[in-house]
Every structure is written in C-alpha cells, then in structure tokens.
Amino acid sequence: MIFVVGIGFFSLCFLMTSLGGQFSAKRPVDSPFTVRAEVLSGHESRGVLRKISDMLEVIMKRMDALSKLGNTTEAHRLDELSSALDRIQPVGLVERIQAIAQNMSDMAVRVEQILQRSMAANRVREGTLGQCETPKDPRYPDCPSKMDWMRARWTSDPCYAFYGVDGSDCSFLVYLSEVEWFCPPLAWRNQTATPTLKPPPKTQAAFRSDIGALLEQVGAGKESLSFMKRRIRRMAAQWASAARRLDDKLRDHRREQKRILVHVGFLTEESGDVFSPKVLKGGPLGEMVQWADILTALHVLGHDLKISVSLKELHGFLGVPPGRGNCPLTGPLPFDLIYTDYHGLQQMKHHMGLSLRKHKCHIRVIDTFGTEPAYNHEEYATLHGYRTNWGYWNLRGQQYMTMFPHTPDNSFMGFVAEELNETERLNIQRNKVNNMAVVYGKDASMWKVSGKEKFLAILHRYMEIHGTVYYEAQRPPEVPAFVKNHGLLPQQELQQLLRKAKLFIGFGFPYEGPAPLEAIANGCIFLQPKFNPSHSSLNHDFFRGKPTSRKVSSQHPYAEQYIGRPHVITIDFNNSEEFESTVREIMRMNVKPFLPYEYTCEGMLERVHAYIQNQDFCRPEAPFPPVNSSWLGDAPGPFVLPPDSSILAWGANASSYAPWPPLSALRLLASPEGQSCVRACRRAGLVCEPALYRFINIREAFSALDLQCDGLESEMNHLFPAFSAEHAECGLQRDPLLFSCAGSSGRYRRLCPCRDYRVGQVALCRDCL
Length: 769
Known about the structure:
By secondary structure, the protein is α/β, with parallel strands linked by helices. 38% of the residues lie in helices and 11% in strands. It is built from 24 helices and 21 strands. Strands 14, 15, 16, 17, 18, 19, 20 and 21 form an eight-stranded mixed β-sheet that branches. Pfam families: Glyco_transf_18 (PF15024). Keywords: Glycoprotein, Glycosyltransferase, Golgi apparatus, Membrane, Signal, Signal-anchor, Transferase, Transmembrane, Transmembrane helix.
C-alpha cells in the first residue's frame, strides 16, 4: 500500500517537472502553468493538451487509490507516510492539484479560441470562406454526414493529415471530393492538380524457364519459405518442359502480361504464422505446396510478379498512406491482379481503407475448402444464418480459388504433383512390394482414430505397415509397435517409399490434402474411409464455421469422384469383413502410376492462363436480356434442343455477348426437387457454371423446360431461379451475387446452367481456350 502512495507522489513530481519543460522552454522565469504569448501550432497544442489530460487522469486515479487506502487496516502506516510527505512537500497538496487543473482548463479554452480564430483568418485570407460550405447535391447524399464525421473524428487517424486535412471545412471538402468520393468536385479547385495517371502500355507475356529471379523474390528467414523454395527448385525442370508444350499449343493466342501481387497473408507475423514452426514437425504442408505452385505458375507464364509475406511489404507495394488504414491508397492500384488468402484479405481491409471496396474486383482469394454464395453475401448471410468468421466479403464466387474442384461456384486453382517419365513408370511397376502399406499421417494426432486398432490389426495380417510420423525423443505412443515408423522424411525419401509401397491408407484426416495424389502418381492404391453420414459444418467440428455447407463423403472426395477404382477405393472401415476382403483384393491388383492432367504442370499452367486472360470481374456486364430481342416472351426463347440430345442448349444469336465460358458451352436443365445444381449437372455428365446463370434467369427458361408459371417473382434467394411445383410459382434471382450452384430444397426444382468440360481439365469447357 505504501508503495502505491509513493508512486502517486513521485508521479506528481514528474508531472510538474515535465510540464514545466513543455511550457518554459527557453524562458525559465515563466511559470509552468501560465499561458505564453506564443501559441503552439494546432498539432503541437493539441498534443500537449492530450498529454496534460492523460497525466491528470493518472494522478486523480492514484489520489482515489490513496483515499481508499485510508480506510484500510493499514491506516497507521499511511499516517507515518503522510508525516514523511509533509516534511518533503508543503501542505495543501490536493488544493494545489485542483488549482493546476483549473489553470489547465482555462488554458485549453484559450488555446481552442486562438486556433479557431487562426483557422477562420486563414480561410478569409484564401478567399474561400463562402466556398467551403457543405454542398447539398442529391448525387452525393452522404456528403453532409461525412463532413460531420470528419469534423468530429479527423484526428483519429494520421492518414487524414497526410492528405492535407488540417481541421478546416475546406480541407475536409477537398479530401472528401478528391481523395475519397463522397462530395462533389469543388469548382474553385484546380482539377489538374492531380492528373489521372495512364495505365502502362500492354505488353505480351513470354514463357520463362529460369526460376532464379523467382527464388530471390520468395526471400528467406522462415522455414515455410525455405520449404517453398526447395519445392520450386525440385520441380523447375518439369515446369520448364510444361511451358514449352503449352507455348506450342497457344501459338496463335495473344497473352497479355499482367502486373500481379501475391500476398501470402497466413505467413505474415501479424497473422501468427502458425505454419512455419511446424514445417519440420509434421505440420500441414498442403497450403505451402499450393502457394509454391501458384508462384511458379505465374512466374513461368511470364507475368510481372511481386511477392509479399509481411505488412511492411504489402504497404510498400500498394502505396498505403501512414496511419491506421482509414484512408484510400496514395495512387491508382499498381496491379491488375492480387492473389491472397483470407488472412491477407482481412489485412487489406484494415490497411486499404475505401480502396478495397473500389479495387476488390482485382482480388483472387486462395481458399482451400471453398466459399459458397450464401456465405459470401454479407446481408443475406446475416439475415439467413449463414454468417461465419469467414466469407461475407461480397466478392464474385469465382474470385475464390480452391485446391480441388469441389465447389463449382468458385474457381479451381489446384496444385501439381510430380510426373514420372516412362523409365520411372516401368521401374516402379517392377519394384513394387506387394505386401507393403504406408499410412497417411505425419502427425501423431492423426493416429488418434477411434477403432484404428481393429482395422490396422487386419491390415497387419496381410501387409507390412510403414509410418512417417514425426517424433523428437521417443516413439509416439499413438503408433502401434508393429508399425515401422521412419519419422518425418524429406520429400525425395518419401517419394522413394511411395514408389515401393502397394497401398497408401488414410484414417479419415487430414481432409483433401495433396499426399493421396502424390501416392497415386507413384503407383499406390489409395484406400480411404467412407463417411456415413457425410461430414459437414452441420455435424463436424472441423468444418464448423467454414463458409460452406458442402457434404464431404470421404477423406478425399476428389479422389473418390474424379479418379475412383482401381486407383482409389472408398469403403466403410467399420465393416471388418468388407475391409479384409478389400485388402485381399488390393494384393491381387496391379495398377499403373496415374496423375490427372489437371494436376500436372502443363494442366495448371493451362488453367491459370485461361483464368488470367478471360476472367474479368471489373468490366461491367451488358444488361440481359436485351430489350429488342426477337425471342422475348416466346417459347422456347433463346434455347434449342440439339440433335441427339435431351438437354437444352443456347441457340440465340449471342454476337452481342462474349461471356467466359462462352454461351456455346451452356446446357440448361432443371434439377429434381431437393437436389442442388452441383449434383444435377454432375449426374448429366456436366459441370454447373455460375458465370452463365444470368442467361437462364429469365421467364423463357421456365417455358423452355415446360415449367408453367402461374406467378413470377424476383427475390434474393440463393436457390433462385427455381420452380415451386406446389404453387406453380417461378422465382427469379434479384441479386447476381447469390447465383449459386450449391444449395437445395424439397420445395424447389432449381434451374441449372451446366456446361461441358475438357477431358482431364474440369475447370475449362471445350471451347474455353
């Protein structure tokens, strides 16, 4: 208690001394609490007043503590301290503090009066007093409220002062009309003072084979970056070979070079960078594999690339003004595209101010598990229970880019696995060990699976089981004694292990990683558990909070649906008889190494090239349907039934529309009740294409499908356009951001814009290149 009282007293002494220094400056005869004739500038005086106010608040809190201490059982100690303080400081301490406070209050009033007179005089001298009244322009309805906000809060962020705001109404108007866009341009301002910068001339992109410049840009200092650089070096020859093949394929295509920023938000210190410390301890590497491949693909395609893994680098590349992130960027966006993740998107929101809203059409979000439109639309998600910690960014669905093609509402970015030459393929087939299995799971926590002892014991009767579980001093207890654990292996040694093994077995976690594709590419059969019921955000903690309602039917749905037998076998691990018979079947099988084209270097280059050259979310779309269309109101409208087909296609003259994918790929169908467009298109051997939704969001689409509408309504509903058979009502989508392949209801038959796709490249239609 005595210590607290002492701190309070010495804080007072410090206050008197420091304030004396602030005000006496070069004139020691002045009292520290008298107002000098020379008044500090606006910024300085406000800073001093804030300091005085803060110090007084601290003193009064400590005095309050003193008064409370006086009522404790240690009052006799305070009496002793009080007598000691009396010998050091004259009586009347509280009265003096009150006098000081009154003097400072008077001083604050006088300073504020002087500042107001000074600013008013400046406005008169500039001849702008009448010109700085808040304009009342119906085209700028937010101007008055923004002016009020600036008057009250302009000192809340130093970025306003950086842009010339000084507390005057004139500076507010200049800022709100020239830096932001809430007030009309001022007639008395020289509008040529801030010339519009022309974008740099467009240049042709040329394929690159040298990765030296890329490795320099990736940088160092983090184990995650070292891992990515090792992968880039190891795969360099395959990327170069793939670039030559794609260059030959695209000879007649002009490829415009884009200015691209890649900001890997999850690797920044500000996001916590939880991945780097786990790189050498069996942590998840899927995200770093994908980012390394994205960087390499963009570099090899010949684009002008900048890489950021810190907020400091992000600020420098974007031109973020100093401050707390409330102001727009200092100039035009210097990039055509920005690739980032959810962490990076959040960081840009905090540091780009209104510029994020203005430039968000340039952003692409790398999103492993996908984001469905119902979760992406902020207002809709909030009103209908789809709001999560992620999502709600109001982007176009295709701006989210996934690791696997599981969410057609998003774009499929992917990654690559190493390809084998013919000699390597033959050697693998000759050297396979028929009774050797490798378990998918580098971290001991992945082995904590209920019932694993039962099916591992069955497997052990037929095969030698190998693990690659990280450990430091002693063997992880989760790994059974009969498993030969190699510890965490470097990538090349893991490849050698997979090239010998016959079976690669998953326990159900991690979901949708790159390892099963690498194992299949090295000639393994992937055995995985079927989930019944399917895992989703409704019943499983891992998916809870993710912006998707997708139902995951197995550990690796892509492998199950797009590859399948004989390379991938999905069964119920709880059924011991089925499990054992499957193991015996696998031992009799001979499979060749297999890698889907879309996961080769050439496949990824082809896909990323198509996205960069064709996806433009900044260009305004022409209104549809056009007013003068000859088919308006007539059945079947713009749709025709091609020969030898039961699915409607686009038949109207589409010369005025050039969407991507092109309208030649469109196939129109209606889903059964309770079925999503994802599933309905897949069952027809097609893929749902959200970019074509606006061309079927018309009354004529219902007529073409023989769905008779007694009523037609338009609303925000992620299931629309859809038909309600019970009421014979047709519903059109009001908000394009809610066009969604995902989602189903027993009440509706959904209208689905399906498309064809290239063999081995589900992201692209046949005419998409």
